[in-house]
């Protein structure tokens, strides 16, 4: 019997991969990796390592989750050390819990290696702390993709009147609806909003606005992107430290790149 490592590969910057994640990559016989993995980290693998792409590309045919689960089980039962690489953290909207459950059902040894989720890292690279003693003492990590049977109105009403900071995953295509629902249920249209595209990478781009006007500004932002909603977005004006592509072209200074 082999073993499976469910590894969070971080949000994009290869330097944000954890040491334990790096060890799991180096010891793997087989690596199954997702779409948002920075390919640079695959170079840490052994020359003999086999790679399988398990990404789910938007609007394209992709490997079903069931096939990924089956592949992990089959490879582990053949005695392989399998590293399942997932963007961000495997347990934060990464379906890592489902994959771990499948492995447990087949009595396959596994380990969970947490990673830095984009809900924290993308705002940080954009100069936005998700909590701040002057602006926010609570934060929620939420998805714009509601599960079947969920009352959408009730879901967004709760969020409109709940945590002070919202970090929304997978929400760019639904941005107009998100803004409408939050303002409908009590959030001020003047609430600050930031969209961070390709957070922590050299392709990062950030735009800011409010619930009332961000939709008009967001036409250049595509997935993958994080949406940050709350007064903490104001902090970007003071602590924006990461030089983004748009700023490089404007200011003619060297880009920040990973080692």
Number of domains: 2
N-to-C series of helices and strands: EHEEHEHEHEHEHEEHEHH
Task: Note the beta-strand portion.
Answer: 15-25%
The shape is: globular
Major sheet summary line:
5 strands, parallel
How would you state the average pLDDT, rounded? 92
User: In which range does the helix fraction lie?
Assistant: 25-40%
Q: Order of strands in the sheet with the most strands?
A: 3-2-4-1-5
Distance between the termini: 37 Å
Secondary-structure-based class equals alpha/beta
The CATH homologous superfamily of the largest domain corresponds to Tetrapyrrole methylase, C-terminal domain
CATH class of the largest domain, please?
Alpha Beta
Unreliable runs, pLDDT <50, ≥5 residues? Answer: 248-259
Corresponding CATH architecture of the largest domain: 2-Layer Sandwich
Counting copies of identical and different chains, the oligomeric state is single chain
Count the helices. How many? 9
Number-wise, the strands total: 10
The CATH topology of the largest domain corresponds to Methyltransferase, Cobalt-precorrin-4 Transmethylase, Domain 2
Radius of gyration (Å): 19 Å
Structure description:
The structure is a single chain. The chain is of the alpha/beta class. The chain folds into two domains: 111 residues, 3-Layer(aba) Sandwich (Cobalt-precorrin-4 Transmethylase, domain 1); 122 residues, Methyltransferase, Cobalt-precorrin-4 Transmethylase, Domain 2. Helices cover 29% and strands 20% of the residues. It has nine helices and ten strands. The strands form two sheets. The chain has a five-stranded parallel beta sheet with strand order 3-2-4-1-5, sandwiched between helices. A five-stranded mixed beta sheet has the order 6-7-10-8-9, covered by helices on one side. Helix 5 crosses helix 6. The chain is globular. The C terminus is likely disordered.
